[in-house]
């Protein structure tokens, strides 16, 4: 019986304008090492790089790319062992001055994508157990206060309304929903998280704040999915509805006042 032939991809090569710059990027930022360098029989300069001790080269950079040549590389993908190494690579990419970094969950992998110095797309990824990504429709931030700190809460609310694309809720001096003490809330879209939450971390003026996503489970959002700034307030989880009413979800119209 004839065995089937299953070739396995061993390495890839890309043309480059500046060999030294590309070698510096793939060694210092990606973490490859140069295993060999030389000149081909056709006069092209070659740099061989690898991350596997038993593999002479996984990437070959070859001189000869036209000065205005457009990259035809869809992506060069490198796997790392775990999240710590993925985060470390992300830090090195940022330190290299690359601002176009895209983060993606594929369900069975976490990836970052970014261009190398000559515009070839690079992916660094780690495998994860397969899971279905839950849709996050937006976020709530609940700011808690008492009679003595209500003026602080009022000031904080006004600054948030004027500075960020949030939809403010009214002050609730009496317990409402799962919240056992006085609070106000703001609603914001997912893309505003990186603006609103870091600001709250530094400017909440001692008030306790609950930040939670808006998924299909309001119970999980107020418990295991919750992010607390300050001291957590015990939630009345038993009275939560399974899903959110429409008016509790963000709209596309929110803008700073």
How would you explain this protein's 3D organization?
It is a single chain. This protein is α+β, with helices and mostly antiparallel strands. The protein has two domains: 12-64 and 72-127, 2,3-Dihydroxybiphenyl 1,2-Dioxygenase, domain 1 (Roll), CATH 3.10.180; 139-248, DOPA-like domains (Alpha-Beta Plaits). The protein is 20% helix and 26% strand. The protein has helices at 19-28, 83-95, 150-163, 193-203, 218-221; strands spanning 12-16, 33-39, 45-50, 59-63, 76-79, 102-105, 109-115, 121-127, 139-144, 167-168, 183-188, 209-213, 227-229. The protein has a five-stranded antiparallel sheet with strand order 10-11-9-12-13, with helices on one face. Strand 7 and strand 8 form a beta hairpin. The longest helix has 14 residues, at 150-163. The chain starts with 11 loop residues before the first strand and ends in a 28-residue tail after the last strand.
Report, as a whole number of angstroms, the end-to-end distance.
75 Å
Order of strands, main sheet, comes to: 10-11-9-12-13
Q: How large is the share of residues in beta strands?
A: 25-35%
Count the DSSP helices.
5
Helical content (DSSP H or I, runs of 4+): 10-25%
Spatial extent as radius of gyration: 26 Å
CATH superfamily of the largest domain: DOPA-like domains
Order of helices and strands: EHEEEEHEEEEHEEHEHE
Which fold name fills CATH's third level, the topology of the largest domain? Alpha-Beta Plaits
Task: Specify the CATH class of the largest domain.
Answer: Alpha Beta
Q: Any idea what the shape is?
A: elongated
Low-confidence stretches: none
Going by helix content, strand content and strand pairing, the class is alpha+beta
Number of domains: 2
Major β-sheet annotation: 5 strands, antiparallel
């Amino acid at each position: 019986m004839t065995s089937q032939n299953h070739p396995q991809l061993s390495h890839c090569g890309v043309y480059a304008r500046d060999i030294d710059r590309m070698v510096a990027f793939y060694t210092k930022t990606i973490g490859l090492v140069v295993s060999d360098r030389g000149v081909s029989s056709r006069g092209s300069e070659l740099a061989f790089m690898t991350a596997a001790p038993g593999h002479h080269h996984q990437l070959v950079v070859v001189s000869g790319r036209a000065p205005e040549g457009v990259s035809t590389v869809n992506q060069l993908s490198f796997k790392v062992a775990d999240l710590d190494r993925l985060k470390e690579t992300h830090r090195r990419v940022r330190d290299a001055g690359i601002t176009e970094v895209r983060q993606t969950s594929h369900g069975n992998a976490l990836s970052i994508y970014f261009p190398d110095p000559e515009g070839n797309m690079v992916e660094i990824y780690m495998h994860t157990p397969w899971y279905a990504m839950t849709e996050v429709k937006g976020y709530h931030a609940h700011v808690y206060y008492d009679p003595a700190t209500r003026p602080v809460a009022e000031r904080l609310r006004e600054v948030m309304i004027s500075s960020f694309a949030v939809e403010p809720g009214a002050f609730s001096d009496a317990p409402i929903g799962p919240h056992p003490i006085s609070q106000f809330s703001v609603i914001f879209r997912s893309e505003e998280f990186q603006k609103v939450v870091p600001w709250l971390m530094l400017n909440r003026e001692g008030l306790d704040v609950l930040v939670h996503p808006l998924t299909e489970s309001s119970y999980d959002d107020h418990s295991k999915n919750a992010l607390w700034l300050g001291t957590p307030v015990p939630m009345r989880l038993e009275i939560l509805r399974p899903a959110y009413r429409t008016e509790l979800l963000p709209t596309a119209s929110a803008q700073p006042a």
